[in-house]
Amino acid sequence: MQNRFKAAMLAAGLLTSSGAVLAEETFTGWWISPWRHKEVKPVDNKTWKEECGSCHMAYPPGLLPSKSWEKLLNEKALGDHFGDDASLDEETLKEIRDYALANAADKSWYKRSRKIAMATEQVEAPLRITEVRYIKRKHHEIPEKMIKGNKDVKSLSFCNACHTKVEEGTFDNDTVRIPNYPDWKD
């Protein structure tokens, strides 16, 4: 009897873990996966935080797909990183690139990252998070005056100006506080 129970538990474990691998193959499979998380994986790499965060917000890699990080994180691209020289030594670049590719939207179990991955899978790699169709759609109801006309926001690329829990990987509506517009609700 105990052997049957152990065999059943082993079979259940194997089915469950193989389901996790297969779950990513379809939207339905991903949706019912017990391994998915809400939001975006927070940044947990010290080098990423220090190097990227010294010039701008250290964006979680789950906000862009792998194909975007591949275009952004190479010697040539970093030599002219949106008008600035963000060159890195070879070892640091490798660490940052490996981290981005391992945690990109299309490699993530996080719900919001998966939505970004789906929104970018049939299009050319976006180089900016603000070019992602999903991100645009999530922000389309916010009037321009609250973003570009707001001296404390200026652009959608300053995620942390309004998203108060970015460090935790949380970008939901409940944690948004638009500076100078405390009463605005989505």
TrEMBL record:
Signal peptide: 1-23
InterPro entries: Dihaem_cytochrome-c (IPR018588)
Pfam families linked to this entry: DHC
Domain of life of the native organism: Bacteria
Keyword field: Signal
Protein name: Cytochrome C
Organism classification: Bacteria, Pseudomonadati, Pseudomonadota, Betaproteobacteria, Nitrosomonadales
